[in-house]
Amino acid sequence: MTTSPASENPPTSETGAPADEQSVESRNENRSQRPQSEAFRSFITSGWGPRAATGTARSAAADYAAVRRARLSARFPGVRLVVPAGGLRTRSNDTDYRFRAHSAFAHLTGTGTELEPDSVLVLHPVTETDGADGTTEGHEAVLYVRPLAGRDTEEFYADSRYGEFWVGARPSLDDVAELTGIRAEHVDGLRDALAKDVGTGGVQVLVVTDADEAVEDLVDEVRASESVVEEAAAKTEQHTDDALVEAVSELRLVKDEYEVQQMRDAVDATIDGFEQVVRELSAAAAHPRGERVVETTFDAHARLAGNAVGYETIAASGEHATTLHWITNDGVVREGDLLLLDAGVEVESLYTADVTRTLPVDGTFTEVQRRVYQAVLDAADAAFAVAVPGARFRDVHAAAMDVIAARLEEWGLLPDGVSAAESLAPEGQYHRRWMVHGTSHHLGIDVHDCAQARRELYLDGVLEPGMVFTIEPGLYFKADDLTVPEEYRGIGVRIEDDVLVTADGNENLSAALPRRPDDVEAWMAGLRRPAHLTK
């Protein structure tokens, strides 16, 4: 990577102190060599032609996002709501991760990869006349953004984090407004906007926490006093930051048309990525770190087909498949073993798939591998059968566990004298030794979406059309598990699909990716690249 420029003068602190008195915090500047002459400043900030037109168009998600904001507005009448996009996050020293907006911000603005760090959505409370004798309380949305700096500014050429010379052009205020349908203002005006009418008896300000620490600090500054905040919270449990975090999470429990299409796109791209992996399995088997071949094959596809992976790819071969979230991916991929691939493409709108298949590396299941695989598949099918409107979310897991416990009893793996029914009882749960995770989680703009929703709406919630979640039972027999026969040890199987609840049942969004063992073998045979072509 290039390094940011700095002065050719001997290093000093910001106060002009000698180098040996320079603060540690400022010493990153010591490697830079930016010219300080007026001649350089004048030359680099002049002689530029007009910027090309951006051609920004209104986002396809803009109208859907407006409906989402209206639903949030209705829950918090008269309250100022602050939803930060978040800032750049440091990977190490002065190197940042690629920016990814906070999910609540993306959901409520209808943006994905288009907006920049430090943007903040604010819903300002307004009172509107309804045309009759009364008034209604609502909100006006305003986006506070850091717009493109002029080429006559130091930011343009000297700011390695935000400058156009370093990271490219940011959208203008007009671009942001056109894209989102939301009025855009300079972020420098955020503090005054938040402070307006705040105080005893005035407007209360709530912020989505854990998105941007600097914005949270700013909100704390402008709140009239702790007593005012506590007084307002005492009047109604609704008016707390936690309630806002809860609300923006619960807004995503049921997906709108736009979101469902994004999920379809993410799943379709993910299926293509699985096909790419199967084509490269011979190359993976020939490499000393074959799991890395699998991982990089899928991750490269995700970057080309979408924005990135939605989470760290799990490429677990052999005994590694018994580790639920194996992301080290540094092992070999051996003929005769199973490969558990848990991966998802995140599309540009930031919606992600989450799919798992367990594949025989050589293309054919052994007898015991097939036995375990079929049990997991039967559990998944049982879960699909109950994932319909009116059922409870917890019913999906219960249906899968009924099958898992029954199979373990048939194989004689439950403790002596324990039946499947006894294991399923709350005081039993012996079968969970081999499947400690849940069967399902909501899916969308986060891989574990809606995570701050209330229990009564999530685990105990009633399924509705438009909900999207995973169905992912598994069985995992550790290599050193002395409670099972040796033939099972080292086998890990998970089958994960993404399901959309519909008006009359459900749809398996990932159904195009084979699930049944015979279909898996036939699919792999049609895709595998001969070993001699991988050398």
UniProtKB/TrEMBL annotation:
Its cofactor is Mn(2+). One of its GO terms (biological process) is proteolysis. Its EC number is 3.4.11.9. One of its GO terms (molecular function) is manganese ion binding. Keywords: Aminopeptidase, Hydrolase, Manganese, Metal-binding, Protease. Belongs to the peptidase M24B family. The gene is pepP. Gene3D superfamilies: Creatinase/methionine aminopeptidase superfamily, Creatinase/prolidase N-terminal domain. InterPro entries: Aminopep_P_N, Creatin/AminoP/Spt16_N, Creatinase/aminopeptidase-like, Pept_M24, Peptidase_M24B_aminopep-P_CS, X-Pro_dipept-like. Residues 1-15 have a biased composition (Polar residues). This is Xaa-Pro aminopeptidase. It catalyses: Release of any N-terminal amino acid, including proline, that is linked to proline, even from a dipeptide or tripeptide. One of its GO terms (cellular component) is cytosol. Pfam families: AMP_N, Peptidase_M24. PROSITE patterns: PROLINE_PEPTIDASE (PS00491). It comes from the Bacteria. Residues 1-54 are annotated as: Disordered. Residues 59-216 form the Aminopeptidase P N-terminal domain.
